[in-house]
Amino acid sequence: MLQYEWAWLRQHIESLKFSVSNSSMCDEIGGRLCGEALLEESRQLAIVLDEEFKKRMLHPKNYSRPVEAGEHAWELSLESIRKEWQLD
After folding, report:
1. Would the CA dihedral through 28, 34, 35, 38 be positive or negative?
2. Model confidence over 54-88: pLDDT tens digits?
3. Confidence at residue 53, expressed as pLDDT on a 0 to 100 scale
4. Is 69 helix (H, G, I), strand (E, B) or coil?
5. Which residues contact residue 66 at a Cβ distance below 8 angstroms, ignoring those fewer than 6 apart?
6. Euclidean distance between the first and final Cα of the chain, in Å?
7. What's the pLDDT score for residue 43?
8. Three-state secondary structure call for residue 40
9. What is the mean pLDDT of the chain?
10. Cα–Cα distance measured from residue 44 to residue 6, given in angstroms and rounded to the nearest whole number
11. In terms of Cα–Cα distance, which of 23, 52, 24, 18 is closest to 38?
């Protein structure tokens, strides 16, 4: 599950960075200040997640495909995704 969360969070951070740098998208996320606050919060969560990997003596790995847009780490329901991320 940690690998999926790590990949999802990295993808989320990249999306937020793009949104904050794009004026029309920035408006969609509540403005520049809101976007930057969301980005900072996500970066802090990434630090916590990286610490959890270290604590468990694990290493995150990059995956060649993005996380499914409709699936979040706390509600994985597609069997194919669960199998791909080795969650069973």
Report:
1. negative
2. 999 988 887 766 776 665 655 566 677 677 766 66
3. 92
4. coil
5. 7, 11
6. 10
7. 95
8. helix
9. 82
10. 13
11. 18
The token duo for 87 is: 């969650």
pTM, 2 dp: 0.72
Pull the structure tokens for residue 88. Answer: 């069973």
Determine the residue type at 43: R
The residue count of the chain comes to 88
Per residue in 52-62, pLDDT tens? Answer: 999 999 888 87
Instruction: Give the side-chain half-sphere CA count within 13 A for 36.
Output: 5
Within 13 Å of residue 62, how many CA atoms lie on the same side as its CB? 3
What does each C-alpha distance from 23 to 17, 18, 29, 41, 87 come to in angstroms? 12, 10, 10, 20, 38
